[in-house]
Amino acid sequence: MTTAHQAPGETRPGGRTARTRQAVLTAVFAELDDGGFAGLTMEKVAQRSGIHVATLYRRWRCVEGLVCELLTDLSGSVPLPDTGTLPDDLRALAHSITAFYGEGRISRLIEAVVSAAARDPQAASVLRSFFEERLPLAGRMVERAVERGELPPETDPVEVMSALGAPFYYRILIARRPVDAALAESTATAVWAAARAGAYGGTAHGPVDDATGP
Predict the structure, then answer these.
(1) Radius of gyration of the chain from Cα atoms?
(2) What burial class does residue 105 get, using C-beta atoms within 10 Å of its C-beta: 0-12 exposed, 13-18 middle, 19+ buried?
(3) Fewer CB atoms inside 10 A, N or C side of the chain?
């Protein structure tokens, strides 16, 4: 992820550096569990992780940098599928998102960061940077679909991925209900149909003539 911080999450170093990073991220997650974003401080993370606070400031600079790297690290556990067809890719990703946000700690983390972003410009920057990195990465599956002729050439990959993620965030943050397999299926089906019809920057003149569609 590219941010104003020291490129958190951009590399996966080995040895002592990797152990330090893991200890810090584990401590950040635990501190967020205990006190939320508002209670997170560099000093508390240093105490819990056993890593000197000067090291935290040198590498991450601020608590927003820590949360940015934690979000990036956790999102890396959501695989980006390449099944050969976009409808199957969307379905697989939707179910992976369901499993990811089905964990209470993850949904609480997102809730905490979104709540903080509404009040704190630095937290808002963290959240924006996270999605600015993750959405284009996931959008590669849409680019492959365009190359295969499944979607109109003008299709915007970020818009497609935003549409796939939106129902999950609505369910978690607004409706305050758990995500489930039914949501994954309905979302993937709706986004595939809309993308084929050109709803995301495409022609909007009807579905592409594509034998790979369901």
Answers:
(1) 19
(2) exposed
(3) C
Place of tokens 């609480």: 108
Phi-psi region of 189 (alpha: psi -120 to 50; beta: other; left: phi over 0): alpha
CA distances from 58 to 6, 26, 48, 213 (A): 9, 18, 18, 51
Q: Residues 61-112: pLDDT tens digits?
A: 888 888 878 887 887 788 899 999 999 999 999 999 999 988 888 887 888 7
Q: 134 in helix, strand or coil?
A: helix
Q: How many C-beta atoms lie closer than 10 Å to residue 163's C-beta? A: 18
Query: What is the three-class DSSP state of 149?
Result: coil
User: Are the C-beta atoms of residues 148 and 174 closer than 8 Å to each other?
Assistant: no
The overall pTM is greater than 0.85: no
Of residues 190, 173, 193, the one with CA closest to residue 182: 190
Q: What is the DSSP string of 30-45?
A: HHHHHHTGGG--HHHH
Give the contacts of 59 (CB within 8 A, at least 6 positions apart).
6
Q: What's the rounded Cα separation, in Å, for the pair 175 and 153? A: 35
3-state helix, strand, coil in the chain (%, to 5): 65, 0, 35
